[in-house]
Amino acid sequence: MSAHLERLVGIALRDVLDPEIGRSVVDLGLIYAITAAPDGAVTITMTTTTRGCPLAGFLKEAVAMAAGAVEGVVAVTVTLTYEPAWEPTMIAAE
Amino acid sequence: MPMASLSRWTMSYFAAALAFLLAAEALAIAGIGYPAAGLAEPATLVLVHLVAIGWLSLAMAGALLQFVPVLVSRPLALPGLALPALFVLIAGLILLCAGFATLAGWIEAPLDLLPLGAGFLLAGFSLLGLMLVTTLLSARPITLFARFVLTGLACLAVTALSGATFTTLLSGRGGWLGTITLLPDGLPFHALLGLGGWLGLIAIGVSYRLFVMFMMAPEPPARRVRPVLLLASLGLALAFAGLAAPFAGIEPGAVWIAAALAVLILAGVFYGRDIHALYCTRRRKTLEINMLASIPAFVALGLGVALLPVAVLAHAGDGLIAALVFLIALGWLGGLTLAQLVKIVSFVTWLETYAPRLGRGPVPRVGDLVAMPRTGWWFLLYYGGIALAAAALAIETIDGFRATMALCLIGTAGLVAELIRIRRLSQIKAVDRPPAHERPRLLAARAEERRPVHVEAGSIAHPRA
Residues 210..269 of B with a Cβ closer than 8 Å to A: which? Predict the structure, then answer.
């Protein structure tokens, strides 16, 4: 159930697009981890392309919204981290 | 983790800067200043300071107010000083130019306008420096990027102080200097510190950070970037020493200028290598207009720094040296600034308008706000004008320079119109624009009104509640 929910959240996050490039936060490698508890509480660890990114707060909120809209999710915790720092090699090949 | 906010008055700085650029281009077309006048004549000084302070410094100040907080992840310190600093700088520049106009005999006024204007400029730059230095030092450790900006701000302080000293000499109140002769030998060092240190070095430092973001390129390792800062600092220290040399009874000559330039050029070579590497290793294959339009700026820089020391050492005529300085000031710094303004204005406008809607449905991309390919055509006119105007300066044809500056003016005016259209969301379908009262204001960002309800680390959002 948890793995299934994690997959569904991952799919939902593909709708959150970076406004600069138009690719999803998942494709850009900004989502480091998605963990779902059996009770439907989801924890997402993410980053931004640079520290202090003016979009950071908005992206976190957008990720929380998209994950929260998935059937079965009862709560979302989004954590921003810079360990490891994002680098361009994390972008998925087109 | 604190989130950097929008700088409320950056758009006002940009608007003032562009107005001064248009004014300078119009004066050049009208035949005011070099080559119609001598390099050190008051008419030329009006033009030079409109470009250096009015256009380049105000645009740099506006960009730094937006990006320093972002790049050090700290809020801008003393943000309430941003608007007063702008007003004081504009007043200072107008007074300084009025002083030069008096010197030229265009108007009847006391020459004390010159030191008065310089005093205003010192005050304005001090306010700006206070905001930026406090912000930079609030983040620890002090990063390489911060060191670029801090060194550039130190150069600004020396440039402004030396300029203020020159104005007291020109106004006839330089008796306190005794027999020390600062003019005209100090002028090249004053220009080197202003153009190379305050404007050039900070443009270099900022471009390292921003280009990585804009092109999604790997960040150059510090061991590659550090020599650029060290060499540039050495060259600027030589320029500072050249400025201070008369106090020690030394007369710095062309060799001293060439030595400072040579070290700065070496820094420029390393910088050019890194920028080339950023373009080559970028993950974002399609270049946006700001990065495309930066390429001619780097070509202008390459030509300028390669030929300027040769011209100085060979005692080339004023024409060739003026052409090369023109390429660096309006080709590199001016072109790079115009190119990045398109990006900064569109990004800030998007942030104000659409960032709060992210994740709540489709939103336009940042690039959708920019009219393409029309914006590219304006850049072509601008750079075409710069290339032809530099050639006209080199062969010292006054009418040719005036005619080619008209191309620059048309290109600049077109870009100004595009920037206004970006702020007005003109490229966005009416249905995707927010109601009129929520649209971006032309000159002031809605800095505090659009902050999102943050999902802070460790807190729990209940979007389905």
Answer: 212-213, 216-219
In chain B, residues 263-292 whose CB comes closer than 8 Å to chain A = 282-284
* Residue-level pLDDT at B456: 38
The percent of residues above 90 in pLDDT, for chain B, comes to: 73
Mean pLDDT of B289-306: 94
Q: Which CATH superfamily is domain A2-90 in?
A: Fe-S cluster assembly (FSCA) (3.30.300.130)
**Contact criterion met (CB < 8 Å) for B359 and A87:** no
pLDDT at B162: 94
Residue type, B364: P
pTM of the model: 0.92
Name the pLDDT band for B448 (thresholds 50, 70, 90): low
What's the CA gap between B1 and B15, in Å, rounded?
Answer: 32
The token duo for B180 is 């020390």
B367 touches chain A (CB under 8 A): yes
pLDDT-derived band at B179, boundaries 50, 70, 90: low
Contact B360, B330 (CB under 8 A): no
Residue A44 contacts B, CB cutoff 8 Å: no
Distance CA B353, CA B438 (A): 8
CA distance A63 to B455: 10
8 A C-beta contact, residue A20 and residue B213 = no
Quick check: B315 pLDDT over 70? Answer: yes
The residues spanned by each domain of chain A are: 2-90
Chains A, B: CB pairs < 8 Å: 123
**Among all chains, which residue has been given the structure tokens 């007074």?**
B95
pLDDT confidence bin for B202, thresholds 50/70/90: very high
Q: How many helices (H) and strands (E) does chain B have?
A: 16, 0
Cβ contact B6:B351 at 8 Å: yes
For the record, the structure tokens of B450 come out as 């659009």
Q: How confident is the model at residue A7 (pLDDT cuts 50, 70, 90)?
A: very high
Residue A21 is predicted with a pLDDT of 86
Comparing CA positions, the residue from B393, B242, B275 lying closest to residue B328 is B393
Model ipTM value: 0.89
**Confidence grade of residue B449 (pLDDT, cut at 50, 70, 90):** low
- Ordered DSSP codes for B61-86: HHHHHHHHHHHHTSPPSSGGGHHHHH
Contact at CB, B452 and A58, closer than 8 angstroms: yes
Chain B residues closer than 8 Å to A8 by CB: none
- Strands, DSSP E only, in chain A? 31-36, 41-46, 75-80
Q: What angle do CA B94, B99, B104 make, to 5 degrees?
A: 120
What is the average pLDDT across B405-430? 97
Burial class (CB in 10 A: 0-12, 13-18, 19+), B141: exposed
List, in order, residues 6 or more apart from B436 with CB less than 8 Å away.
Answer: none
